[in-house]
Amino acid sequence: xxxxxxxSCAQTAQLYADGKVVIADIRDExxxxxxxxxxxxxxxxxxxxGFMQQFEFDQPVVVVCYHGNSSQGAAQYLAxxxxxxxxxxxxxxxxxRQQLPxxxxxxx
Length: 108
Hints:
Layout: E1 5-7, H1 9-17, E2 22-25, H2 29-34, E3 41-42, H3 48-54, E4 61-64, H4 70-81, E5 86-89, H5 92-99
């Protein structure tokens, strides 16, 4: 598979609650620290190799950005690297923030 699929916040939340996906948040460090989906992997250029070593290619991955635009390119990249089930979350973290709980490093 070399293409990603789109997924909604609600679908992502359900798959994540069932333990079926990894959330890969590609936003900058400050935005990630200010709020992210609990348990999300902060995927950056610097952590990409570690991510690819930590997760198997058959592990479903949902890529999250700010508004659901940048995540599409990152999702396509992961699909091209061999990940079999890659999704870009529509609406991004801003959509998630309005609908679902999240954590902040500042509140820890």
